[in-house]
Design goal:
This protein is an alpha+beta fold. It contains 12 helices and 27 strands. The chain has helices at about 10-25, 55-65, 90-105, 120-125, 160-165, 190-205, 220-235, 270-285, 310-320, 365-380, 435-440, 640-660; strands at about 50-55, 70-75, 80-85, 105-110, 115-120, 130, 145-150, 175-180, 185-190, 210-215, 255-260, 265, 300-305, 330, 350-355, 360-365, 385-410, 420-425, 450-460, 465-485, 485-490, 495-515, 520-540, 545-560, 570-585, 590-605, 620-640. Strands 17, 18, 19, 20, 21, 26 and 27 form a 7-stranded antiparallel β-sheet that branches. A hairpin with a 4-residue loop joins strand 8 (about 175-180) and strand 9 (about 185-190).
Length: about 700
């Protein structure tokens, strides 16, 4: 439809006059308001806008009368605007320019159920009723009108696009993500939504390449796959994973090792990543140029210097089983712990021990062998040793005192019918006066108890009978036992020393009757046990220089006087079992026994024995006191190298040599043996050369 505005000047004058009358009648315009339109204009005719500092509410009512729609102005919308067109425009363009003028002042107009509302821009997203799903539906929406559109993505992750699109949206409008459908919900002006649609369409494309199969000639697929993936990941940041509940649609570079054909299966995010992976594989898939292992290939022999091959092989197998490789590795993959029953072959290598040569046999590719060799070099180091010096000191003192008076006498005359006896007797055997008197009368010699014995014998019928006996005894005894057992053992290895006798103990006896004859065969079963000094120590050297000692110490002895008992000898036993922590070369006391024992025995005649001084004639008394002090001391000394071991050995050797030299017999012209064996002098110790560095690849000895 064509408009001839400039060809109808008279019509334009009529329109201005009519609009001025309408404004005065309704009171919607201010004194400065000027507009050029008419309410009764024919449909489709263009209009010329000329608003200068007009109230927004008045302009909105005028635009409602021009376009024929219902417009409501929010009470919060205040202010004036200027809207001028240089030439007549259509009603649609006029409304769009009005919306643009509102947008510049922070207001907008939304449509809901046929009603247009002028509201603040911040509230428009809550009152707009227009929702579209495709870009074609925005064709009827004006560019400065706020609407809501849903964008459904096919390839790209919705979460990945939010940081890109957020700066392009007005601050008062929103962008949200629906993780379930991988969609974006954006509320903004229609012209900006059209621009967003073009950006989203350009980014929502599939970048995944086809599957590539990369055969390997020299390298091992399961070894090369994780190495290439680490290099590829470090060359570029991978896509951010989606939030919980959302399927992450961003494609990741995946590299899978196929062990049967020794190939790599690749699918990358783009052709550039494919080229990068291929380049890395070509550079790493190279033959072993060193050839250091010769015809042995992937079988290597490592000769150990200090460690035990059987124990070390078990340790290496356990370590390899705990690191089972994952065949399929991607940028988002995590390591999977190995199961306890996993076979050693799952790690790509095997480890065996040869006890005869104390060596380790490794079947593995060279990269894995070098890794195992580095572990072996650390474990096959010279282990430190610990010299445990112990001192067991026992001091005992015994004191005994005895005093007693005994007497016996007959009352009556010889030949009398009744004869009385009066006296006292105490003790048994050689300390009893009646026992001594009766056995002496029969001619049997009985030795009295040790000590001072004063006796008086009376002759009766030609026989001397002991009638008075006084006994005095005081004895003292002391003993010092000093034991210094020494032990040298490896770190974390138990050592034991036993110094004593192997004493038999009766465990049972029985007799066997011979059925063919009258003979009887007695049998006695015995069990031999070590009696003496036993020391067991297990040291553990800590990093801070302290030594942890697990100790068992036992001191036992056969009790004097019980060697020939029918039920076997009786033993005394002192045991200490403990775990202590000691600094290197420091002394620690494990424990001991401090015993002070007193015993007393008194025999007396009641009443008479309690009389002061005179009562000693009617009593016998014995007293004893025993003191025992036992202490156990330990001193661990860490010996870390061969030089320290040599110094320790030479020191002990010189000590024994000096002792044997001092024990030489004195020269004698009568005796023919004038010398004792003596230790020879030690040769000078040569310095030990440091061993050469062990090569990475073992060689045959």
């Amino acid at each position: 439809m064509k408009f001839r505005i400039f060809q109808m000047p008279r019509s334009a004058i009529y329109l201005i006059a009519a609009h001025a009358l309408l404004a005065g009648a309704t009171g919607l315009f201010s004194i400065n308001l000027q507009a050029q339109t008419v309410a009764t204009a024919k449909s489709g005719e263009p209009v010329t806008l000329n608003f200068s500092n007009a109230e927004i509410e008045a302009v909105a009512r005028t635009m409602a009368s021009i376009t024929g729609v219902n417009v409501v102005v929010d009470p919060r919308v205040k202010g004036t605007l200027t809207l001028v067109t240089e030439k007549p425009v259509s009603r649609t363009v006029a409304m769009n320019q009005f919306l643009a003028a509102l947008r510049l002042q922070g207001y907008t107009m939304v449509e809901s159920a046929g009603l247009y509302k002028v509201v603040p821009e911040a509230d428009a997203k809550l009152q707009s009723g227009a929702v579209t799903v495709s870009d074609n539906a925005l064709g009827g929406a004006m560019g400065n009108q706020i609407t809501t559109q849903i964008f459904k993505l096919n390839f790209e992750s919705a979460n990945n696009l939010v940081p890109v699109l957020r700066p392009l949206i007005s601050p008062n409008n929103t962008i949200n993500v629906n993780p379930g459908t991988n969609s974006l919900i954006i509320t903004d002006y229609a012209d900006n939504l059209r621009r967003m649609a073009r950006i989203i369409a350009a980014m929502d494309v599939s970048n995944a390449t086809d599957v590539e199969v990369l055969p390997l000639k020299h390298a091992i697929a399961v070894d090369l796959a994780p190495l290439v993936m680490r290099l590829v990941e470090s060359s570029g940041a991978p896509g951010q994973p989606g939030q919980a509940g959302q399927a992450d649609t961003s494609f990741k570079t995946t590299l899978i090792a196929e062990p049967r054909s020794n190939t790599l299966i690749l699918r990358a995010a783009n052709p550039a990543r494919v080229a990068l992976v291929k380049s890395l594989v070509d550079k790493l898939d190279q033959p072993n140029t060193s050839g250091s292992n010769g015809e042995a290939g992937n079988i290597y022999v490592v000769y150990l210097k200090n460690a035990d091959a059987t124990k070390l092989a078990a340790t290496l197998r356990a370590a390899m089983t705990g690191e089972v490789r994952v065949a399929a590795i991607s940028t988002g993959a995590t390591s999977t712990p190995a199961t306890p029953g996993a076979a050693p072959a799952a790690t790509g290598g095997q480890v065996q021990a040869d006890p005869a040569t104390n060596s380790i046999i490794i079947t593995a590719p060279e990269p894995q062998y070098r890794q195992l060799r580095a572990v072996i070099d650390k474990l096959d180091g010279r282990r430190a040793q610990v010299l445990v010096e112990s001192l067991i000191a026992e001091v005992s003192e015994d004191r005994a005192a005895e005093f007693g008076i005994q007497w016996q006498g007959a009352l009556g005359n010889a030949g009398s019918t009744n004869v009385g006896l009066l006296g006292t007797n105490f003790g048994t055997l050689g300390s009893n006066i009646i026992n001594l008197a009766t056995q002496g009368a029969t001619g049997t010699l009985v030795a009295p108890t040790p000590g001072l014995n004063l006796g008086v014998a009376h002759q009766t019928n030609g026989v001397y009978v002991l009638g008075f006996l006084a006994h005095f005894l005081e004895s003292t005894g002391s003993g010092n036992v000093l034991s210094t057992p020494n032990l040298l053992t490896l770190d974390n290895e138990e050592a034991k020393i036993v110094i004593g006798e192997n004493v038999p103990f009766v465990t049972g006896s029985y007799t066997s009757n011979n059925t063919s004859g009258s003979s009887v065969n007695p049998f006695t079963t015995i069990e031999r046990k070590d009696v003496g000094l036993t020391l067991k120590v297990k040291p553990q050297i800590n990093e801070n220089g302290t030594v942890k000692l697990v100790i068992y110490q036992e001191t036992s002895a056969v009790k004097a006087g019980t060697e020939k008992d029918a039920n076997g000898p009786t033993t005394t036993k002192r045991t200490i079992e403990s775990t202590v922590l000691v600094d290197d070369s420091s002394i620690v006391v494990l424990g001991g026994l401090l015993q002070d024992k007193y015993s007393g025995n008194q025999d007396k005649v009641p009443g008479l024995g309690d009389v002061p001084l005179f009562g000693n004639l009617f009593k016998s008394e014995a007293r004893g006191r025993n003191k025992t002090n036992l202490m156990v001391f330990l001193r661990p000394v860490v010996v870390r190298d061969a030089a320290a071991t040599d110094r320790l050995s030479v020191d002990r050797y010189d000590l024994m040599r000096a002792g044997l030299k001092d024990g030489q017999p004195l020269p004698s012209s009568v005796l023919s043996i004038n010398e004792a064996p003596q230790l020879p002098a030690l040769p000078p110790v040569r310095p030990v050369a440091r061993p050469a560095a062990v090569p990475a690849t073992p060689t045959q000895p």
